[in-house]
Design a protein that fits this description.
Four copies of one chain form a homotetramer. By secondary structure, chain A is an alpha/beta fold. Chain A is about 40% helix and about 15% strand. Chain A contains ten helices and eight strands. In chain A, strand 4, helix 4 and strand 5 form a beta-alpha-beta unit. At the A-B interface, helix 2 and helix 3 of A face helix 2 and helix 3 of B.
Chain lengths: ~220, ~220, ~220, ~220
């Protein structure tokens, strides 16, 4: 059985920037040892080096541009995040949407550096399109539910099951992650039952009064 | 007398990524001790932490988004680069142009974090507009000369003197840097004579067969 | 005395698209004859030709790209809107923000075709920057008030008076228009008293139950 | 047998703007009567109304934004181009690339207005992704060949046959058009033999000394 993938996007939250980002990463590392999951942290680009030097769990970038070496001032290249210790990247997050050709170029750049890839999408149609580009994962997140606290697995379960189906038809090797509004154990459980192989988390954990407790409560859903 | 500012933009060149970026920063640090200049290195975002931990000269980011803490996945925030050790940033480089409102928001974000700011512009008119936003510096670079090896101080000296004049009229506290095609000591000297207070360098040094030698040859122009 | 400029942005409202756009333009034409104002209509690009063929008041485009003749598929060029009958354009509206260099290029393209220009801005700082580029007008609109029904002249009068002052300092030939939330005669009157030379309107008129009545009520404020 | 689709993109060429756009459309209309093809003209948005009032062949827009009625100043909506007489649209042309979610939204908007859709792509991978979104057509154009005069059917035939294959696997109802560098009858013939159902043309015809002759020479390839 494939291990469940739990991806925590730090966004640009104060509670997950600089030293706070390192502390949160350590909480995730501990949780990973307690629960039988693949735990991934996704800090801001400037925090990748500090975190990957200090924790053993995989660190992903929040964004990678589809450009290589050269005159691309301000871009985030696959080579630079790899050098800083990243092992993968989110691509096309709803807060950092990319052009279709850029998604493809970013995927190629990540593959060339041996980085894992998660392409974020907003509905069933774009999930199918993203799957055709053969990332390792697609993470479907209806934008209106992001940061809402309303789990997609409850508000719109068809978008998950429909995405799983679309991916199966177009590129069955691609795993489907489920995002948007996931914060409790039961949400995670429901997401897995709908056919996803993991979840993409953010505010539900990061903005929690007690991040550690919130993460453990969520992960306990796996055993439920 | 104000110290001459020499800013080296690493772009995403292979010769200035990861470990190579650190080595190049050390070369800059040594050069700074030899010549009476303010030397600034501008690596990729993922390299800021490694470099600022290991060299004493100022490290700037290549780009800062005009957003703060929150749901801004993939953005490069002023707080994150500050936490990683940066002391300033380029904004609106010709390879990473921003909307007018974004430039203003990015400047505000940098000021709130105590970061120095250099807004890049492409001609006299945009230099005047940028100066009105009160960055610490504007760096004027005619895009067609970037990476050309043809120094702007020779190809289009009026763009520098005209920029100096426009800034003097609108916001005289702002310093003018001169970019595009600068690689030799005589280019630097000419740029200073036209009224700029420093230079923005890139490929002329980074792609040089011997980076150290190229930088020293350039800096020797100050004494000329 | 300069004539007061009243600019009605049709946005992409159903009530101002296609035939409805033509009808609304005719209402504006009639209102112009009744009140001593310069009345401008700003329909969608595809509606410019139909409207300019049928009304005598100036028709402006909502956006112009800073490109000329050539390989720029999908761009809106100054030459094309001129050929369709437009006499001016909004540039950098808050719903269609442009990069600084693009604003400058768009202004140049409009000037070359003899088109009037209104650059939209979001605060005092960007108003000053836009004025430095020498458009015919800047229209300052705090984004949070657009479509709110809360007139900027009441919610944030300092942004208008401060913009008027900034423009006077940097480029006094540029006229300041006042936008965001303007819908009644008293709002218009207040805007003029704060130093603006006209207003940029939209939803307050277009979404009104009776567009003609709403426009007349607003214009009656001039005589107040 | 399906009729061959010949689509002429006017871009923003001077030779295809305003009155010249109407003349060129009339040339296309005549050619259509002579040859057994479906001939489509794709003028700038501001020229759609003039042309669709005066010719009977289908007029497409060069770009449609994925937004509807509302506060979207400067956008090109499906409803507005429909009202102006358009019957379809290019989406995601290499000179006007869109984000993945925007392509999907633009397709939905066009479908809701009964407009035909051609999504442009740059390689086999993005062609597959675009096909998953179910446009009427995809037009594959390697960017480096656009405007080059070197026909894709000769320089890179695998990109066409590979695209045809990818589409067949993912969404066989979608037709594949072939673009980039097509200007002669033999190029068109080769494109059809590789499995495409038509071509997307531009500079090869528009910049020709004699547009009419160039178009006829090209269309004669069908009978070859």
């Amino acid at each position: 059985m494939m291990m469940i993938k739990v991806v925590l996007n730090f966004k640009t939250y104060a509670e997950a920037t600089g030293k706070a980002a390192l502390e949160l990463s350590r909480i995730c590392e501990e949780a990973k040892d307690q629960y039988d999951v693949e735990m991934v942290v996704v800090p801001q680009t400037a925090d990748i080096h500090l975190i990957s030097e200090n924790v053993s769990i995989p660190v992903y970038a929040q964004h990678v541009d589809g450009v290589g070496f050269g005159g691309y001032t301000g871009s985030i290249t696959a080579a630079s995040i790899k050098a800083a210790g990243a092992r993968g990247a989110l691509i096309n997050h709803s807060e950092r949407r990319l052009k279709l050709a850029e998604i493809e170029a970013s995927l190629s750049a990540c593959r060339a550096e041996g980085l894992s890839t998660i392409v974020c999408t907003n509905n069933i149609a774009t999930t199918g399109a993203a799957a055709a580009l053969k990332p390792d994962y697609v993470a479907v997140e209806p934008p209106e539910l992001i940061g809402s606290g309303i789990p997609v697995s409850k508000a719109d379960p068809e978008v998950i099951s429909g995405s799983v189906e679309a991916v199966k038809k177009i590129e069955p090797e691609v795993g489907v992650l489920c995002g948007a509004g996931i914060s409790r154990g039961e949400d995670l459980k429901a997401a897995l039952e709908l056919g996803s192989v993991g979840v993409l988390l953010a505010s539900g954990i990061i903005k929690a009064e007690d991040q550690k407790k919130a993460l453990e409560e969520l992960l306990s859903g796996i055993r439920g």
